Structures are given as structure tokens and as C-alpha cells.
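Hey, I was hoping to borrow your eyes for a little while. I'm sending you its amino acid sequence along with the C-alpha cells. Take your time with it, there's no hurry, and the full record follows here.
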Amino acid sequence: MRWGTAAIVGAAVVGTGAAALLIGRRVSERAVRPGFAGAGTTGGPGIRVQELGADRVTLTRSVETERPGRYALEWADGGHAVVGDVLDTGPQSVTRRLLATGAGSLRTGTEVRVTARVYLGDPASALGLDFTAAEVEGELGPMPAWYVPGIRGLWAIVVHGPGADRQQALPVLPLLHALRMPVLVVTYRGDEGAPPSPDGLGHFGETEWRDVDAAVRLAQTNGAGKIVLFGWSLGATMALHTATRSAWRDSVAGLVLDSPVLDWPATVRREAARAGVPGPLAELGALAAEGRTKVDLAGFARLAAGTDLQVPALLLHSPVDAVAPFEAAERLAARREDLVSLQPVPDGAHAALWNADPDRYGEALRRWLTPLL
């Protein structure tokens, strides 16, 4: 049933007020369940392999297949390949460099989706980096983590975004390792292997940040001098919460915020729109999500304004982010220009900024981190 039809039927059957509540709740499901907000998946159904060569692949032309940078193609039964530069475009096609083929067989006619997951596995299998499986003891129970050793006193605690997992951190681990920083890649409530949220809902970082706080505590008790918090999407929002609310906040030396969610209502409405929900119903969904999770909008606005921010932050964001508005990032950078360095990433998808230009992303990160070492 289409959303407009659902609204009409609901209003006719149970009355306008009750229908609004029911529809708002239905729309809000996408936002309140752990795992919304993009995760760097930039292309859905309808993208097919048109031609395949030894080092190139021709795909259906779309915004996603035309993006510059490095991306993965994924298809049914766990298929995975990596594509690079755009080599040619036609009226209905895009040809890209085929960099690697992994699991599965990529064939002409295969329907694929474009994702940010260039690397799969763990630090050892994907990158050849030594690591230790660790656990962070949170208030709800133990949460799995990866620990990549280093010799610096400055640690990095890395927090993936919703809809992703620890593999989201893999592209930045080689640089952090080259800088000899110990790295703790964490999970939080609702993740696979971690305890669920007590009510089964995601709370937009307002409760999840306490799991990041537990990781900061673990790092401190294991010899960390100072800590950089690095997060994507709502993982970046959790990092902001931690830096301003944690009892251990004095140990936080800086933040790396990739595509942070700073305008919560706008992000919820955009997620609904991405699912095909009309504007008025998206607004109902945002209101329902607020009520169900009891998110503190005033506190969220204070966080987004950087009112309590006390450490430098590298803010990486795309002007064309379809999930988290770039304007919110610009406002934060303008209000706290003393601490926040905004690095726009043209043509980047939400939480997939490394993919858009890996070299530029890595250089910006290296330059920003070096003075903190």
C-alpha cells in the first residue's frame, strides 16, 4: 500500500487524530530501530552489469554509479567487488575501473548495489594488521571490540554509524596504525554481539554514548594518555556526547566527525523521504520518533551548536549529504570556529567520504592528527 493511500484509509477507518498517530508510528519505525541513516549504501535496486572486462565494468548509469572515488559492488549470495575511477559514460551507462573481485561471480546482467564497504573482514584478514579481540564492559553488558596495538600515548576510539558495523573503520586503520596510535574499534547497544537496548529502540546517541564512555574508561585503565574519538553519522554524534558529558572527558584530546547527525529532526525527515514517504507524513514520523524515544531536542540543539565543546574537532561533511544536512555542519563550524575545522568533501555520500577521495581524506586526517601526537 502506498503512503498516501494508507493515510486516506487510516483516516476513514479510525478518524483523523488516531490515523495520524498510527501513521506517524509506522513512519517512525525506520528511524527508531537501530540501523537507520544510510551507512554509506549509495545505490539500490535497478543497477545492473551491462558489460564486463578484465579490468573494467560497465553499469547502469545513475547518481551512485557516477560518483568519483572507490566503492564496492555487492550482489546476492554475498558477492563483492571493488571499483575505482570512472573511465567513460554513455546515455545509459557508466564504465568504471574494476580493481578487485572477491566473493561470488560478477557476470553480465547481475543486479548490484553500490556500497562504501570496500574492505570486508577484520583488521587481519582485510588489511594484514595485527589485532586483538577485546570486550568493553558497558552498563548493559560486554560489547565486542577490536584492539589494534600502537606505541603512542594518544589512542583512537572509533565508532561506526547506524546500519554499519566495525568494518566501517577498516579504511582508516592503516593511517592510524602508520601514526603508531593504539586503536579501539568499538560496538554499542543494539549491535550484533552487544546487548540490545532495553526498549529495543535506538536513541540517536543519547543513551548509546554511554557505551562509548565505557570504551574511554577501558582505554584509560589500560594506559591511554589522551584519546581521539572518531565516529561516522550517529557514531560521530555519540563522540560529541562523550566529549561533553563523560566523567572522563578531560582525557579527550580531539574529535574526528564524519557526516555527523547534527539536525536530528531534519535527518529523520530525510530518512523517511528516502523511503518514499511524502513530506507531511515524514513530519508525523519525526514527531512520533521524538515521542517514542523521548529524545531531548533542546539538548541535541545545544550539542549541535558546540556550546559545551572544549576540544578541537575535524568535521568532514559532504555538501550533497542526503541524510545529515550540510548546513548544520556549516553552522557548527561557524559558531565554534575556534575549535572546529570543516573539511567539505564534494560528491561524497553520507558516511562514505573516504570513498569519494581516499587520498585527500587520508591527508586531511593525517595533517589534523599530527599536532596531537
Remarks:
- Residues 123-270+286-372 form a domain with the Rossmann fold fold (CATH 3.40.50.1820).
- The longest helix spans residues 16-32.
